[in-house]
Amino acid sequence: MRSLLLHVYSPLHDEGDVEDVIRWVEARVGRMFDDVERASTPEKAAEKVSEEYGFIAISHITGGSELMAFKAASFRRPTVFLAHNRMNSLPAALEAVSAFKSRGIPSWVIPLWREGSVKKLENIMKAAEASWILRGHRIMTIGDPSPWLIYSLPDTRSLSKLGIEVIKVSLKELMKELKPGKEDEEEAKRLAARAESCNVSIKEIAKALSLYGRIKKIMWERDADSVTIRCFDMIKEAGTTACLAVSMLNDDGKIAGCEADIPSTLSMLIAHTISGAPVFMANPALIEGNRILLAHCTIAMGLTSRYRLTTHFESGLGVGVAGVLKEGEKATLMRISPDVDLLRAGVGEIVSGKPYREGYCRTQVELRLPNAEKILSEPLGNHYVLAVGDIMDGLEAFAEITGLKFDRVG
The domain that contains 182 carries what CATH number? Predict the structure, then answer.
């Protein structure tokens, strides 16, 4: 996705003052954009914008620049109006954003003098990127959704509206050529050495790594951008679990979800794009007041401060990843509904990132989340996605860009 920063200003203003403000704006945000242009007439503004841009920022250097900004409206791209605190910049931005919103164009005003304004702009840009990525995105599902996913089933019509294509691959095809080689054994030794502890054999790790290689190969053959696997059904036949493969794929930046859950894998993609880091797909395993325990047997190792290699919780087989997350960090919990109609999200704090409880999946993260009880009273399925950091601005912007309802927890 290409992005444009367009400075607009009235030719009536002092040139020196205009240049000073342009330098100030570019020092704060110029590096974030692919192209930076300027215009002092509506005709010049029209020349600078084009369909190639997936995101546009209009920097109102002076008042009287509203019509210049309006020339970007014909492309209906997500647009941010940047304002500074002098020269009637804010009134111009408010007039322009109102015109865009009245035409149904996703748009926002960001007062650049405020603390946190640059981060908000960055999150909105990432939201626009996430919506852009969805167009033509190919999710590969290996096997059908797990039988217990009686609610979290994909709505193919809604997915196609977003431009998403679902590619189906059988578990039988996954099983072909599934045999660990010497390189898998060498990599298994390196993984075990980097782990805090390891209570599975090198042979078991190598077997799990062969599955990782096989999934990567099928993704390349099918030109898939992300993947989700009906993992439980393959455990006995493959003699291993997909937990390590999923972990490593997410570390590679290839979004990988569990249980052939397409809505949750799509949620992972959105959160990953906006946060710029791997994310954690998990079960809400315990809710007490404003605390929620999230647990699953896989997590991207790059998201953890340290990890243990152990077995899969339910089966006691294969290789699971018990990762530790840093306590005291802000984190965002989110998911989208299967009909791609609603995005739910809330920000909390990680109060425990250690997998210490018996009777739960291997990675366990306890989050302090205001109004966590809403997940019980207004349920939305059995998988949520955790992104480290506060990405609420980005998620709310993504909902506006794609036409989803936004449901805030907390």
Answer: 3.20.14
| Residues 189 and 298 both lie in one domain | yes
Q: How many CA atoms lie within 13 A of 342 on its CB side?
A: 11
Q: Which two tokens stand for residue 293?
A: 């325990």
Give the three-state DSSP class for 359.
coil
Rounded CA gap, 113 and 235, in Å? 55
- With contact defined as beta carbons under 8 Å apart, do 322 and 361 qualify? no
Does 374 lie in the same domain as 237?
Answer: yes
The pair of structure tokens assigned to 254 is 């290839």
Q: How many other C-beta atoms can be found within 10 angstroms of the C-beta atom of residue 64?
A: 18
pTM comes to: 0.93
**Residues 249, 200 share a domain:** yes
User: What is the rounded CA–CA span in Å between residue 142 and residue 112?
Assistant: 46
What are the respective helix, strand and coil percentages of the chain, to the nearest 5?
40, 25, 35
Co-location of 109 and 152 in the same domain: no
- From residue 327, give the alpha-carbon distance in Å to each of 280, 303, 386: 15, 13, 14
Average pLDDT of each block of 10 consecutive residues along the chain (410 residues)? 96 91 97 96 93 96 94 91 96 97 96 95 96 93 89 83 90 85 90 94 95 95 96 83 96 95 95 96 95 96 95 90 96 95 97 88 96 95 96 96 95
Burial (Cβ within 10 Å: 0-12, 13-18, ≥19) of residue 212: buried
Distance CA(161)–CA(27), nearest Å, equals 38
Q: Cα–Cα–Cα angle for 223, 224, 226, nearest 5°?
A: 160
